[in-house]
């Protein structure tokens, strides 16, 4: 009995997959010493950040007021090391994929400066996250304490990732902010683009299925429910038929807005201060302050 010779199939497939017409736009050519950012390292960065921002709730459970300085110091040193390494990888990726030609190639000094700037902002990030915890607690009658909010509520994990990613985004670090928010998207079902601007005392009840676009501006004391989309309408095209990027195309929600479950708000419109948007409706025009928009009976 003669066995079928599969070698020609393998060889032919290798040749087809190695053809540059096959992988155009799908291939990242590595250079020595310039790896892509590591998903595993970024997961550790988020774990360390959560342990620093919420000591005792994330990370080591034996932390107390006597050893907190030591634990935070150790975690910050490791965080700085990992951030520097990953930011450098992100900067290298950005130079290559944006077709930039510059004499100032990404270097470890630049990455270390950006990493230290993010770390300098951590106390401010913690302060605003404390308001998000308050908003989740006072906005949910089922919540029993702040600890339950921090441990259990998906919004805290998602908003923590977002607030870290947003700071990296404002520092013009490529790729990494989006990876960090997509990690939270996978973990919680909450999709927040790092370019969005979100004020203090922000919360999402339940959370699953929420989408917040890149150019959204969300004020203070805003509450969303599950399934809310803050999205864009059709994209304007240039003369070549390509979508025009970088223009404001997502909603503005002013202070004290509440948006109920599965509402869809599209386009660069403004939802005025104190407005309420009911569930399961589409909104494509601006809403005045204090208005209440619900389905018709």
TrEMBL record:
- Does the UniProt entry include the keyword Acyltransferase? yes
Keyword line: Acyltransferase, Amino-acid biosynthesis, Transferase
Which SUPFAM superfamilies has this protein been placed in? Trimeric LpxA-like enzymes
Residues forming coiled coils: none
Q: Which GO terms describe its molecular function?
A: acyltransferase activity
Q: Does the keyword Cell membrane apply?
A: no
Record-linked InterPro entries: LbH_SAT, Ser_AcTrfase_N_sf, Trimer_LpxA-like_sf
GO terms classed as biological process: amino acid biosynthetic process
Superkingdom of the source species: Bacteria
The record's section on PANTHER family has:
SERINE ACETYLTRANSFERASE
* Protein name, per record: Serine acetyltransferase
């Amino acid at each position: 009995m003669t066995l079928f010779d599969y070698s020609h199939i393998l060889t032919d497939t290798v040749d087809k997959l190695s053809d540059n017409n096959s992988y155009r736009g799908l291939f990242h050519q590595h250079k020595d010493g310039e790896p892509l950012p590591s998903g595993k390292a970024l997961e550790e960065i988020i774990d360390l950040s959560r342990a620093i921002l919420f000591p005792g709730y994330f990370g080591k459970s034996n932390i107390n007021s006597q050893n907190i300085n030591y634990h935070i110091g150790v975690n910050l040193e490791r965080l700085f090391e990992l951030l520097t390494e990953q930011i450098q990888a992100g900067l290298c990726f950005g130079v290559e994929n944006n077709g930039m030609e510059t004499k100032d190639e990404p270097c470890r000094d630049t990455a270390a400066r950006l990493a230290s700037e993010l770390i300098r902002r951590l106390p401010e990030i913690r302060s605003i996250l404390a308001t998000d915890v308050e908003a989740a607690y006072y906005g949910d009658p089922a919540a029993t304490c702040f600890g339950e909010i921090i441990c259990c509520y998906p919004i805290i994990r998602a908003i923590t990732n977002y607030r870290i990613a947003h700071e990296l985004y404002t520092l013009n670090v490529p790729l990494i902010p989006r990876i960090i928010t997509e990690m939270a998207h996978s973990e919680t079902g909450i999709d927040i683009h790092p370019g969005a601007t979100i004020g203090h005392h922000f919360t999402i009840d339940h959370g699953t299925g929420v989408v917040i676009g890149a150019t959204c501006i969300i004020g203070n004391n805003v509450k969303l429910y599950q399934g809310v989309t803050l999205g864009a309408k059709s994209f304007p095209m240039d003369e070549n038929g390509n979508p025009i990027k970088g223009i404001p195309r997502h909603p503005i929600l002013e202070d004290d807005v509440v948006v109920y479950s599965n509402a869809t708000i599209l386009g660069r419109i403004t939802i005025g201060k104190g407005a309420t948007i009911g569930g399961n409706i589409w909104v494509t025009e601006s809403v005045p302050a204090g208005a209440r928009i619900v389905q018709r009976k």
